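--- STAGE predict ---
source: upstream dedup step, 1 unique chain passed
mode: sequence only
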Amino acid sequence: MTSPLIFKLGSMISTKNLITDLQQIPREWIFEYYLNLKEKLTGQDIKMLSAFNAKDKVPSMFIYFDTGCNYYKFKDFSSGYGGDGVQLVQRLFNLDTRSQATYKILYDYQDFLNNNTEYVSETLVFHDKYKVVDYEMRHWNNFDQTYWMGFKIGSKMLDRYNVVPLDFFTMSRTEQDGTITSHTFRKSHTYGYFRNDGSLYKIYMPKTPERKFIKVENYIQGTDQLKYDCKYLIITSSLKDLMTFNKLGISNIEAIAPDSENTMIGEKAIGELKLKYQKIVVLFDNDDPGIKAAQKYAQMYGFSYILLPMEKDLSDSVKVHGIDKVRETLFPLLKQALCI
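--- STAGE serialize ---
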């Protein structure tokens, strides 16, 4: 356990404007101060390297203005952490409770005011986010075949899950002055993920490490393909892992995948799935974010989870070791998790 925080209150009492309530502190100051942001938060979103993972080479932490609650939050995809400013401080300083984080913020803000004339909050203005507004499909080519067949995923599986190569896609947003800014992207190895009704829900660019996925709509991947005629359900980390799992030929198990490992499937959806399957297990990546995400499912829903001791994820394991070796390794782990 982390020892309780003890603050010296002398400097706090010396000021006329004593800070005693978190409501007196601008929420955006918390992010600006503890993350050493170079710009003030005025309603825009910020993407940065993870504050929790020193090995992060591609920015995976987002500071965003949540229009639902009207204040800033963060989501760090490298560690799986997320929440408001208090949770940020609690994670940054490894504090046991939210109260300890609150006391630290109060103390640090008071100290900030003692050494600065004041903190001036900028007017928060809603910034429209970029949205996918157009795209064009193209025919499959040899580069696509080489990429997907590396994971033993062929055309029939891609067709079943409505994966289609894209020639380009366009994103746009409305600026504060009413003008529209648009950008068109035309890259190799760009794929659209579609639902059975033809609606696009995600764009996948595996050769673009700084932005592999662009979410278009909320959707639990694989839901349209469920037949509900199996005893068991496995939750994988991605659509690619889901399709790879289906190639293993393990019967009596269907598969789905959330938007990402760090996006929890909601209680309502899980409740409906529990009525249709005897047991549900989780198979996420065996790295730190994947393990933490699997543990959240275990804590929240009581699901068993599997850590495949091979490559980082299921699809990479098949690519490196082949279907037979992965099936041989995974099958006993599945039997143990399903208690069969």
